Amino acid sequence: MPHDHAHHHHDHAPKITHLTRAFVIGIILNTAFVIAEVIGGFYTHSLSLLTDAGHNLSDVASLALALLAFKLSGVAKNNQYTYGYKRSTIIVSLLNAIILMLAVVIIAYEAVMRFIHPEPIAGGTIAWIAFAGILVNASTAWLFVQGKEKDLNIKGAYLHMAVDAVVSFGVVVSGVLIYFTHWFWVDSLVSVIIVLVIIGGTWNLLKESLRLSLDGIPKELNLEKVTAAMLKIEGVLDVHHLHIWALSTTENALTAHVVIDQKAINSFGYIKEELRHELLHINIQHCTFEPEFLVESYSNTSC
To answer: Is residue 245 within 8 Å of 253, Cβ to Cβ?
Structure first.
């Protein structure tokens, strides 16, 4: 007889209402700070402020795109998109990573130019503006702490903001050094450090987003682990033609041929439910099984 599995498996993704609020607050705070950095950067002739403003502007775009993706992921499926628009979260995650990498190229170029042609900079003003950046970015990052391990887009937003807080701290240090020493080249050095920090925080996000976009197996899963979990179910003799891919940054799908003991032909409905339950525990929400009985019959069924 089937067991009564009265578990709730859909708590992996944070609530959309909470996310919407977090993204909107983050967008407002960072837009205001970008405006302040641009004004301060032109006023002080600081490359580090202007490049950080460009980086923060890309973060605003990233937050807006991520919010749009989450809204689309909640749209009901239809005859044209039978899984809905869940995959938009993966596309946006990849786009965000690409935007950051492009920002890196621009910042690096400007930093080299400033090394060659350094300009006088108001260090004190830079330090105060960057200090405000620490508060803005740290506060925004805190909004995404709750869901950063549950979704790639949220993790991306968290990393963007956390990295920005560290970058702002670096700009504060450079502003103080420039104020007391008049070493104007420090501004360009900090810009180079910003580039390295961005690359370090974005590379893994880029790789994982690209993997999911190409229907690769999500990082937390592997064929051996999933096969072993399925073979634990009584009546399952073998599993082959196994395919796993991501429907979104929070939901995964699976198809597989399942070889069933001929004695369990009449129990496949139970076996299917046991398989579905086991796979939910390892974060696979949508599965389709093709049973292969050792006698002769072949059929299709899905869960």
So the answer is: yes
